[in-house]
Hints:
Porin; 2 helices; 52% strand
Amino acid sequence: MKHSFRFLWNVLLCLCSLVMAHAEDGSDRMENLIYSPRYFGPNAFPMPTLRDGLVSQWYEAELRGEYHAYTGDKTWDLRGRLLLPFFRGRAGVEIDWCFKEKYKMTPETRDERFAAGTEGGKKYSGDVVVSSFFQLLKSKKWADIVICANIKTASGGRLCDARFTDAAAYWFDVNAGRNLWERKDGQAAIRMQALAGFYCWMTNSQRHRQNDAFSYGIGLTGTYKRFVLSSQLIGIRGYEDNGDRPIHWLNRLTYEYKKNVIYFRYTHGMRDNLYETYSLGYIRRF
């Protein structure tokens, strides 16, 4: 009887140790994750795209590297994008995928986000965003207008570290663009863009299973021969106000040579977006 009691006691101690180890690895904290841009990694909530009010007539393949930084999180990622226009440039489909991400967080950021760890020990990829768009109006006199529908898959990894949400999101928007000035030879122009729409994503809240947001954007682009310089302000405004109102200020310099495009982009995060992002990309047109 005494040996049986000791055996049961040892088994109980082992079970307690396993439970404690599970608690220490942080996986039990996942139910406390806050599904908003403020408390997730920089790629968890893709922002709407200002499309200039036009659908490109080129097939495009893009590769870009990005570095996202703020005091509590350093993130590196590689992304790929494929653009497939059809109906003579009246419509198109775009696929954007974050296929590699690496990060390192401070313990303070880990605790703030209820994450399990400060860095990922395994290779993982992110979400895929599929966008479809249609040229609703094309007019130099009035404006160029494109309507867009976008969906984000739930394929991203490292939910336990608040990197990707493992939940679907979708958004719809209307893009408009109009030339404010254009040189007669077409070698220089100034163009204005605007965006308005609806953004929705799934959450882990039992009270609100999804969060809805208004999306908006405005931009100005200057073109001179092979150079293009653009500045855009894009944001979403969620109704829960729990870190769901990020604003991005994007500045991009592009150089185009024949069917090759090289660009550098700097993104300044405001309000619920904490990151300064530096992007370098190459686009091949066909």
